[in-house]
């Protein structure tokens, strides 16, 4: 299965199917596929993969296998915000002293060079 999402431009034709901007088409064909753009520059997100053969449950930013797992993910997020936010405010502004960083599960702190 291949999926084409047109995210910039005036749309295009994918395998003979008109796809407007901000729309997606799925093509179930493993052979060559004709892509035809118009007069405007167009950008397309192309996704291809094999089915994983497992159930998929989706809600907001979370993707799990079951509704129960989704509920647990939301409960975990609501209780810890996945590790917590170390500042007293919820906005992403850290002030002048703290630069961008990532804290890994093993406690290691990574800062950009």
Radius of gyration: 21 Å
> In percent terms, what proportion of residues is strand?
25-35%
* Backbone structural class: mainly beta
Number of helices: 1
Alpha-carbon distance between the termini? 40 Å
Shape: extended
Total strands: the figure is 10
Overall pLDDT: 84
Q: Strand order across the biggest sheet?
A: 4-1-6
- Topology as a string of helices (H) and strands (E): EEEEEEEEHEE
Helical proportion, percent range: 10-25%
* Uncertain stretches of 5 or more adjacent residues: none
Question: What is the oligomer described by this structure?
Answer: single chain
Reported for the largest beta sheet, the result is: 3 strands, antiparallel
Indicate the topology.
Layout: E1 2-8, E2 12-14, E3 17-19, E4 23-27, E5 35-37, E6 43-48, E7 57-59, E8 62-64, H1 67-80, E9 102-103, E10 109-110
Antiparallel strand pairs: 1-4, 1-6, 2-3, 2-5, 7-8, 9-10
Jot down its keywords.
three-stranded antiparallel beta sheet, extended, 1 helix, 113 residues
Explain this structure.
With 113 residues, this protein is mainly β. Among the domains are: 2-48, no CATH class; 52-83, no CATH class. It is 12% helix and 33% strand. It is built from one helix and ten strands. The chain has one helix at 67-80, and strands at residues 2-8, 12-14, 17-19, 23-27, 35-37, 43-48, 57-59, 62-64, 102-103, 109-110. It starts with a strand and ends with a strand.
What's this entry about, in short?
With 113 residues, the chain is mainly β.
């Amino acid at each position: 299965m291949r999926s084409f999402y047109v995210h910039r431009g005036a749309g295009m034709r994918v395998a003979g199917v008109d796809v407007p901007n901000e729309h997606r088409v799925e093509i179930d064909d493993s052979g060559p596929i004709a892509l035809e753009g118009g007069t405007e520059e167009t950008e397309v997100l192309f996704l291809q993969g094999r089915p994983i053969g497992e159930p998929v449950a989706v809600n907001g930013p979370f993707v799990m296998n079951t509704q129960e797992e989704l509920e647990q993910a939301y409960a975990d997020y609501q209780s810890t915000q996945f590790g917590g936010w170390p500042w007293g405010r919820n906005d992403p502004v850290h002030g002048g002293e703290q630069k961008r960083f990532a804290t890994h599960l093993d406690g290691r702190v990574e800062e950009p060079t």
